[in-house]
Amino acid sequence: MCRWLLRMRDLADGDDLELTQEFLAQMLGVRRPSESLVANTLQKAGLIRYRRGHIRLLDIEGLKEGACECYATVKAHYERLLAHGG
Q1: What H or E segment, with its residue span, contains residue 54?
Q2: 20 to 30 A from 57, CA-CA: which of 18, 45, 63, 86?
Q3: Of 4, 17, 12, nearest in space to 64 by CA
């Protein structure tokens, strides 16, 4: 979830994301109770604030620590493609 939220942040160009729990669960390929458990864990850790379809990313570095190394790899590849007009 950390990696996915960071990627959405990159695309939205901001720390505020309008996402419902149902949509987030679908995008992650999990059931809603699983998504809720992880979102609550991230909120208790101070990484996000979640309220009725709105997620605010509070601790970007903390989310990066929670994401796999593939986030940085995918982001760098995407930026290289954009730099070359692709």
Answers
A1: strand 54-57
A2: 86
A3: 4
CA distance 77 to 60: 20
Query: Can you tell me the distance from the alpha carbon of 12 to that of 18, in angstroms, rounded to the nearest whole number?
Result: 10
Could you tell me the two tokens for 15? 């720390």
pTM of the model: 0.84
Q: Give the pairing of strands 48-51 and 16-18.
A: unpaired
Q: Which residues make Cβ contacts (< 8 Å) with residue 61, sequence separation at least 6?
A: none
How far, in Å, CA of 83 to CA of 50, rounded? 34
Smallest Cα–Cα separation from 25: which of 49, 47, 55?
A: 55
Torsion of CA 13, 40, 64, 67, to 10 degrees: -110
